[in-house]
Specification:
Length: 705
């Protein structure tokens, strides 16, 4: 936080700083300052301009500037202690000739953040090592062991195993307290200071893994290239394939993720059986969500996983997950359901270790979705979000935010969904990941504003042919089907739902499109299509046996039934869905029941159901479905009240993000860290929120719907 605030303060609203600083702020902030200023990218013109100014300064002033550039905390006491150790006569007046470049007060701040980089880059390697050595000697080893070790490492001339070991130990402590980016920096420098080839390769791979987890994907790839340049053992070579596959999947770049992971898993089988099983699970996830050849690749992965010798006994959480997902593909849902249910239960609880949770928790959400288990889905996501934030492992964070965004939208909390979507954008902008806008697509489909939704769907479909975007088209077609059913354009909904559900394994989100297909087909008289799709739907909901799945099945079956059978099924759907948090699906059940009652000429009962549906849709913000309910009400002789916009829609996406985090109990400082903002910016946004909502304190945010 000190590093972030220091850099933002240095920017002082300077337009050049505002253009250049965002490129480096996330990594500098996340790494706690353990990133050399040489990481900055400066144009030649700017750099030469600063260097010409530096050349005209006295030697003691240049020395003071270099000390300040090498220590991002801006502690004046540390600065002067280090200056005394250098013995170059650097006094307090040394800052005077550079007063337009640096401010030495209660904190040491550069007037422009790019000056720091220019100063550091202008110095020779020997000069840099000298100031880092002085800073290390001037740093208290008890209160600031990490920073002292870092400066010692920067001062080292060549291999130094003592410093390398110290950095490796500090990396472990940094990881334990959530400093994944700092741990990556420690491990990278530790590898550079390692003299033996085998140990250097091992530490380089560890640094690559830490960079992957912290979201520094390009740096992780560079480290893998460095490791490959040397001679690797067979196990280390397999780990390179594994990390390359994980990076390809996390970034959404390239179709090779599942193939790389499959290759790594096969190489690992004779070397480390547990690691091989873990890698097959990674390959399953990459194939299911990124490949265009999902069916063929998934089957190959699952058959290979099933052929492995049994894992440890009792089975680990990831063994349950792998076995369940492999059975799902090879033997079907009915066989896989008990194992998947057990895996979901374990991941939703507190018995999964941190490493297991970080790496595979997102796949446990896939298992919960396969089981139509919305409660398990939310429980796993909530636990994982907390785990990711505590550890600083950003590589998986977007997946959980996307899942929570979809869950929030499906619960009818569109403000929270928009906030999660905004947070996804922040994280992917910081890490460079390229993920399809899954949650945004679903939210747009439920809102039902065609002018906003269709361009998003089209853009996603245009990109869906890109490598690594395999499931994006499925989500876009599913969203289109929901939108068109809301608009009453059933032929278009039918076409989109058929495209979304074309994948034969009925994995989500394709299986979620089946109810849309049934509704659309029933409305345009395509009974054969509707009945065959209902059979497919039942094969997914019956083994799951949840209120979510069985409620959706009952609602879909009612569309194809008559008389008392239809009425009982609609009532069952309403009863089951009312026991879930899925308000949009419950509202749709009321709508369909009301439409059926109207066609049965039971107008008073139809009005009751349609009025309930319209009120729910309006409160949630589902415009298209609300209009559909209003038209049905009008056909019964009753006019629905005009839809109004909720007060919270006045908030910007950024303000909505901050409100959600504030309601969760985060302090302004914690919110700033989560969203890469300064504390002052958060305070500014909250003041605007209070004015818009007519409240005066954070405590009142909790009472807002």
């Amino acid at each position: 936080d000190q590093v972030r605030d220091q850099i933002i303060t240095e920017a002082r609203g300077n337009p050049l700083a505002l253009l250049e600083l965002p490129r480096d702020l996330p990594s500098l902030k996340l790494a706690g300052g353990f990133v050399a200023p040489t990481a900055r990218t400066l144009s030649g013109r700017i750099e030469k301009s600063f260097q010409r100014r530096l050349e005209r300064l006295p030697a003691d002033t240049r020395q003071l500037l270099l000390l300040a550039a090498a220590e991002p905390l801006g502690d004046p006491g540390l600065l002067w202690r280090a200056a005394d150790l250098l013995g170059d006569g650097v006094g307090i007046t040394a800052a005077d000739p550079a007063e337009d470049m640096i401010d030495v007060g209660d904190r040491v701040r550069f007037r422009h953040p790019l000056v720091r980089s220019a100063v550091y880059r202008a110095a020779s390697p020997e000069q840099r090592r000298g100031v880092h050595h002085a800073l290390a000697e001037a740093t208290d080893p008890k209160s600031e062991p990490d920073r002292r070790a870092w400066h010692r490492a920067q001062a080292a001339v060549g291999p130094d195993e003592d410093v390398a070991v110290e950095l490796e130990q500090l990396a472990g402590r940094a990881q334990a307290r959530g400093g994944m980016a700092a741990a990556a920096a420690f491990l990278e420098r530790s590898a550079q200071l390692t003299g033996t080839r085998e140990l250097r390769a091992e530490r380089t791979l560890a640094a690559a893994r830490a960079n992957l987890q912290s979201g520094a994907f390009d740096q992780a790839l560079q480290l893998l290239a460095t490791a490959e340049a040397g001679k690797l053992s067979e196990l280390q070579g397999a780990q390179v394939d594994l990390l390359r596959g994980q990076i390809a999947f996390a970034t959404g770049r390239g179709p090779s993720a599942s193939l790389l992971l499959l290759k790594a898993a096969r190489r690992l089988e004779p070397l480390d059986l547990n690691m091989a099983r873990e890698t097959y699970l990674d390959a399953w996830g990459a194939s299911a969500f990124a490949d265009d050849e999902r069916e063929r690749n998934l089957l190959e992965i699952c058959l290979a996983a099933r052929a492995l010798p049994p894992g440890t006994q009792p089975p680990r959480a990831i063994d349950l997950l792998l076995d369940g997902l492999a059975l799902l593909v090879t033997d079907g849902r009915a066989t896989a359901a008990p194992t998947l249910r057990q895996a979901v239960s374990v991941f939703a609880g507190q018995d999964v270790g941190i490493e297991e949770g970080l790496r595979w928790g997102w796949l446990a959400t896939a298992a919960s979705n396969v089981l139509w288990d919305d409660d398990g889905w939310r429980a796993i996501c909530s636990r994982q979000i907390d785990l990711v934030h505590r550890t600083g492992a950003l590589d998986r964070l977007p997946f959980y935010l996307i899942a929570l965004g979809v869950a929030a939208a499906w619960s009818g909390d569109f403000g929270a969904a928009a906030s999660f979507i905004g947070e996804v954008d922040e994280v992917t902008a910081a890490t460079g990941a390229e993920l399809p806008p899954y949650a945004a697509l679903f939210l747009a489909s439920l809102r039902g504003t065609e002018a906003q939704a269709l361009p998003l769907f089209r853009a996603t479909l245009d990109k869906a042919t890109n490598p690594g975007q395999g499931v994006a088209a499925t989500v876009a077609y599913w969203g289109t089907a929901v939108l068109c059913n809301g608009l009453g354009r059933y032929k278009e909904a039918l076409d989109a739902a058929q495209r979304a559900s074309s994948y034969p394994l009925d994995l989500y989100p394709g299986m979620w499109a089946l109810p849309e297909l049934i509704e659309a087909a029933a409305r345009i008289g395509e009974a054969e299509i509707a009945w065959s799709t209902l059979e497919r739907l039942a094969r997914t909901t019956q083994p799951a046996a949840t209120n979510f799945g069985l409620g959706i099945e009952a609602r879909s079956r009612a569309l194809l039934s008559e008389g008392n059978a239809a009425q009982n099924l609609y009532r069952e759907a309403i009863d089951r869905l009312s026991r879930t948090e899925l308000r949009p699906e419950l509202a749709r059940a009321h709508l369909l029941y009301g439409e059926w009652l109207r066609r049965e000429r039971r107008r008073s009962q139809a009005r009751e159901q349609l009025r309930t549906a319209h009120e729910m849709f309006t409160a949630i913000g589902m415009g298209a479905f609300a209009d559909r309910a209003a038209r049905e009400l009008l056909a019964t002789g009753e006019t629905a009240r005009k839809r109004t916009v909720e007060t919270t829609s006045e908030l910007t996406p950024r303000e909505t993000q901050i409100v959600r985090l504030a309601r969760e109990g985060l302090t302004n400082k914690e919110i700033a860290g989560r969203l890469y903002l300064s504390t002052r910016t958060v305070e500014h946004h909250l003041r605007k929120v209070f004015a818009k909502l007519g409240i005066t304190s954070r405590n009142q945010l909790g009472s807002l719907a």
